[in-house]
Every structure is written in C-alpha cells, then in structure tokens.
Amino acid sequence: MRVIFYTGKGGAGKSVISSATGLKLAQMGHDTLIISSDPAHTLSDAVETRVQHTPTPIDDNLHAIQVDPIREVREKYGVIQEYIVSLFKSRGLDEVLAYELAALPNMTEFISMLKIVEFVDSYDVVVLDTVPSGEALKNIYLPSLLGASATKLIKLIMPFANIGKLVEPLVGMPTPDREVIKEDIKLLELLEQLRKIIVNREVTSLRLIANPDTFSMQNMKRTHLLANLYDINVDLAIINKVIPEEVHDSYFHEWKNAQAKLLLEAESAFYPLPIKKLRLFESEIKGLKLLNRVGEELFGDEDPAKIYFEGRAVEIKEHENGSLEVIVPLPFAAKDVCSVERTGEDLSVVISTDIGEIRNFIPLPAIAQIMQLAKAKLFNGALHIFFISGDG
Question: Is the same domain home to 332 and 255?
Fold first, then answer.
C-alpha cells in the first residue's frame, strides 16, 4: 500500500507528472488509482479520457477519479451541511448565500483527501495529483485540535440532543439533532484514519514539483517547511520544464542562465532530498504516448512506488540529566517566527509564514506531561524544545 502526493504552484505540471507516474506504476504491475482535485479537469486533458467521479479505466492496471466536491458533500456530508445552513438562515442570511458559506474550507482538496481513506485498501498505489494547502491540512489534525476525548464528548452529548430541541426558541438558533451528531462523529473518525495514513512514512510520500523560477522555488521551500511541521515525509523534488542544454537559440540565453543558477541553489538548499529534472518538452503533453515518455525520462527503470528518501521525523530524546528534548525539523524557517506552548497533553507549535499562521499539535510522551516547558530554539534547520522535571 502506497500513497503519493504531488504538490506545486499552478502551472508546475502536477497533473501531467501525476498521470505519468500513475502510468509508469501501472506498467510495472501496480494496481494504481489517480485522484484529481483540479477543478479545471486537467487530468482528463492529460490522459485524453473523460475522467468521472467514480474510478474510470485509463489503461491496464490504471484508473482515475475526478473529485466532484459538490456531489460528495451532498451525498456523504449533507446532514452536516444542512445543519450549518440552518444556522446561517436563523441569522437572517439568504438561502443561496447560506449554502455558499456552509461549503467546507478548501472543500475540493479536503474531499479528495478523504477519498484516500475510501480507496487506499483497494489499490496498490494511490496518486493524488494536487495536495492540499496548509489550511486544508489543518483539517487532518482536527481530532488533535479538539483533543483526544472529542469523539467521546460528542457521544456523551448525543442522548441530550432531543432536550436541545426544546430550548431552540430560547437560544434563537437550531440545535443539532442525533443524526447531525452521529455524522460529526463519523467525520472525526474518518479524519483520524486519514491522519494516520498520511503521517505513516512507510505508506505516504509527498513529492514537490516546481518550475525553475524564483516564485515556484519559494513555494517549494514553503511547502517543504509545512510538510515537516505536519510530520509528512517528503521523498522527492522534481524541477519541471528545464530548457535542455541542446537549445542554443539566443532568445533563451538569459532564461538558461537563470535556470542554471536556480538549479544549483535548489540542490544546495534541499540537500539531501533527491532532485529530478524534467526537460521542457517540444509540445503540450497530452495522451498516453507522451505521458509514457515523461515517465521514462523521470524514472527510467526505477519503480516510482519506492521511497526515494526518508527525512527526519519529529524526534523525542531523553537526556541523562532527566530533561526531555523534542526536535521538529523545520527547514527554511526564520528564527524569529516560531512559538511553542502547552495545550493539555499536546505541544502546540506555531509558525508564521507568508501565507499566514500555521499551527500543529505534537502528542507528548506521558513523562512530558509532568514536566515543565523550559525553552525552545531554532538551529540547524530544526526547532528544539526542552522540558525539565517539575522540581528542576
């Protein structure tokens, strides 16, 4: 069982590389599913087949899904959505606007991730052709955010749902019934299953795609930082659309010089993460024949399902003096933008980035729960957090 995410800025070539990877995997005998959450239906263009919301045959051992978030929400999470709509309508909002506001944040990416849980046991490899943003990744950690006892608490409340209906006139808004609470519990449990799959380094890999330009490279660095914060293994980076050496037209002279400089910087900045380079093709890449060429140039005789690299996971060390050290790898993080605090049984780590504040919750071993948070500092691309005994 393998799950491979591809992520990168718009136009980096996620759908093409995801499709080429899926085709190569299928040719090597892996029963493969590609999941696309691109609303532009780029996957259908790449494979030249109309990809449906259910597994669509593409080639031997290869299927694909185009996520339809509206259909998914209506069919699987409609009870929750209807309750949220009723809340907005109780506040006087127009029904159309209420439905717009009730849409889940980052809904398309969120739904595509939940598809992983649905199909991960049905295929050898699942390839996701666009990974969620940092905001959507927060949804994975919703159970941690609410605390380990969130589901138990909701189950405890369920018997009192009917009583809640009696007080609706007093509170001035609808209260959730048993069906809404039951669906909330199912969604939390599904999110927990998804989180366990994604942070399992033997199962899931995140692969970064960038074009050889400054903005795309910066996006790659930011994504690498977020992945480490969320303890997701990044095993490969791909620089796409590199102008080949054999192109000598003077028009591309400055472009080639700039690309060469950026490629050197990337190899230094991301080391020891493996980096593959894919040339700029002569034409738009569409159809299985061209996708096969892309797969061959990227992977050759390699199996794309292999784990190319296993980066540092969040690490916990116990020292001889009785202190405890938690190490969170954070490449590219600035030294003045991290904060750490205790939140019950978890450690809350906050990183400020150019896309806003990112927070993650790290479960602590039992021993840390009776210790004091002493200090936290960034060095050597990692956040080091120290705990001391209560009497120290």
Answer: no
**Whether residues 204 and 338 fall in one domain:** no
Q: Helix, strand, or coil here: 253?
A: helix
The residue that leads in pLDDT, 80 or 190, is 190
Same domain, 171 and 235: yes
What's the pLDDT tens digit per position in 131-177?
A: 655 555 666 665 555 544 455 545 544 454 444 444 444 344 455 55
- Element housing 128 (H / E): strand 125-128
At residue 372 the predicted structure's pLDDT band, cuts being 50, 70 and 90, is confident
CB 340 within 8 A of CB 347: yes
Domain range enclosing 375:
315-389
DSSP state of 281: P
- Give the count of domains, the chain: 2
Residues 6+ apart with CB under 8 A from 208: 7, 8, 220, 223, 224, 234, 236, 237, 238
**Residue 105 corresponds to which tokens in the numbers above?**
């944040």
pLDDT in tens, 103-126: 555 566 677 788 899 999 999 999
**164 in the same domain as 180:** yes
